[in-house]
């Protein structure tokens, strides 16, 4: 309700503002900039209102804003090699005794439009006047294709190993492995690299032990191993299959808290946790097998083999009777929401740095420290790698929020004749 009124009053202001402005080029830029501001404001509003709303409306709106911009940038950027009005005008402006600031703003919006086109993979890139090489890297955008490829490599164990090829150090090695995988495979054939995996830390954890909650790297490593048994068909492997909470009153935070409790039960009962229906992924953005699944947004909590095996076991009566598979209904809500935190790693929460301040002093010890520590671990594990879909959503969101700002900064470091050099 509130959102709609805000939106329509914004729209009114925008159209009034647009009418007031003439059709001369600088004003078009102003209008664009203004639209952008509106998009940013709207996006943050949407993000504040709810995560769910952000996924559907916020992103749709920011996509729309890029659409508006690229509508005009199609003529700006030019098709068929015709001289493009925007660049011609920019060139003219550069020769005229105008203030540098205006030139930079023009260049920044050209760059912003070019990035918008690059971001939208479905637009035919041949139609772009600026050649790909003349468009500087966008510091706020990720190469989702490559990142997802690397993450896949990191999430799949090599043959006969329990853990993927995580190195004990972070560097460019991940990328090198990806590009020269076949040659490296040959080189590594004789090397007993299994020896390394015990001490190898999961690549999704940034920083050292001191930078993270106590034992984070060890716990994340162990969670991954627990959730990825080498042979899911082994009759000894047991499962806990659970839907995400879906009562309308449950926000995303409650859904996470519930799933963290279920992961704790799974660890304590030595079961592999398999998540099932996720209402927040029940929309067309999540295609095919990812529909209504956690894996629409993040890498799945377990391997595909284990998921398949668990769903197959659920159809068998004896699997239920023997307790090979359990579901959420097998546990009370007290067990799920306030159950025992796994103690397999001791009590690392007792080494937490105090962060809770009451009346000006930091509290060293308080109740529920264990739960806080565990939820951080569980959520970190579940969100270890973004799916390409999430990566794309984040790119779009960052572009509409910071794209123009980033363009202005990048333009400062370009040669003064840009973009003429690239024509
Ligand atoms: C890309 O452009 C097409 C055509 O203009 C549009 O339909 C689509 O929604 C855009 N996608 C994104 C992610 O901006
Ligand atoms: C994996 O183990 C099997 C049986 O132990 C062996 O035949 C195979 O060569 C091993 N593969 C690699 C890549 O070491
Ligand atoms: C996994 O375990 C099952 C049952 O013990 C066995 O039939 C199958 O061959 C095993 N698969 C592999 C790859 O070891
Ligand atoms: C889980 O619940 C099912 C039916 O709801 C029941 O058949 C099964 O025995 C229960 N399993 C355990 C381990 O309690
Ligand atoms: C905070 O400090 C004030 C003054 O020292 C005291 O009156 C108050 O009771 C304290 N509150 C708590 C929650 O400890
Ligand atoms: C959003 C925007 O700036 N749209 C403009 C695109 O260009 C046409 C004419 O070139 C203008 O009429 C629009 O206002």
From TrEMBL:
The entry's keywords: Membrane, Transmembrane, Transmembrane helix
MF terms in GO: alpha-(1->6)-fucosyltransferase activity
Gene Ontology biological process terms from the UniProt entry: protein N-linked glycosylation
Transmembrane domains' residue ranges: 29-54
Species assigned in the record: Aquilegia coerulea
Protein name in UniProt: Uncharacterized protein
């Amino acid at each position: 309700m509130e959102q709609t009124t805000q939106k329509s009053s914004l729209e009114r202001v925008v159209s009034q503002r647009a009418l007031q402005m003439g059709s001369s080029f600088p004003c078009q830029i102003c209008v664009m900039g203004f639209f952008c501001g509106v998009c940013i404001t709207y996006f943050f509003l949407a993000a504040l209102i709810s995560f769910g709303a952000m996924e559907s409306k916020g992103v749709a709106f920011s996509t729309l804003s890029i659409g508006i911009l690229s509508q005009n940038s199609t003529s700006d950027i030019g098709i068929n090699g015709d001289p493009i009005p925007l660049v011609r005008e920019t060139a003219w402006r550069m020769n005229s005794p105008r203030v540098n600031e205006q030139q930079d703003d023009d260049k920044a919006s050209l760059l912003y439009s070019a990035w918008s086109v690059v971001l939208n993979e479905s637009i035919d890139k041949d139609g772009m006047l600026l050649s790909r090489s003349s468009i500087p890297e966008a510091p706020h955008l990720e190469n989702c294709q490559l990142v997802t490829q690397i993450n896949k490599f990191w999430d799949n164990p090599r043959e006969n190993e329990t853990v993927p090829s995580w190195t004990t150090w972070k560097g460019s090695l991940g990328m090198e492995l990806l590009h020269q995988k076949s040659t490296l495979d040959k080189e590594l054939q004789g090397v007993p690299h299994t020896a390394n995996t015990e001490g190898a830390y999961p690549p999704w954890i940034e920083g050292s032990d001191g930078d993270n909650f106590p034992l984070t790297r060890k716990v994340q490593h162990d969670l991954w191993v627990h959730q990825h048994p080498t042979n899911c068909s082994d009759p000894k492997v047991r499962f806990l299959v659970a839907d995400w909470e879906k009562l309308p009153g449950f926000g995303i935070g409650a859904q996470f808290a519930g799933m963290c409790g279920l992961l704790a039960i799974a660890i304590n009962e030595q079961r592999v946790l398999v998540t099932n229906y996720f209402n927040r992924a029940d929309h067309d953005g999540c295609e095919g097998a990812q529909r209504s699944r956690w894996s629409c947004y993040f890498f799945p909590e377990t391997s595909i083999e284990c998921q398949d095996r668990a769903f197959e076991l659920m159809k068998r009566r004896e699997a239920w009777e023997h307790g090979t598979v359990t579901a959420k209904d097998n546990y009370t809500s007290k067990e799920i929401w306030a159950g025992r935190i796994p103690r397999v790693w001791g009590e690392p929460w007792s080494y937490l740095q105090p962060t809770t301040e009451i009346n000006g002093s930091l509290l060293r010890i308080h109740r529920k420290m264990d739960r806080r520590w565990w939820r951080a671990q569980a959520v970190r594990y579940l969100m270890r790698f973004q799916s390409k879909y999430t990566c794309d959503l984040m790119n779009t969101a960052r572009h509409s929020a910071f794209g123009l700002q980033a363009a202005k900064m990048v333009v400062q470091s370009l040669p003064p004749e840009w973009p003429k050099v690239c024509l």
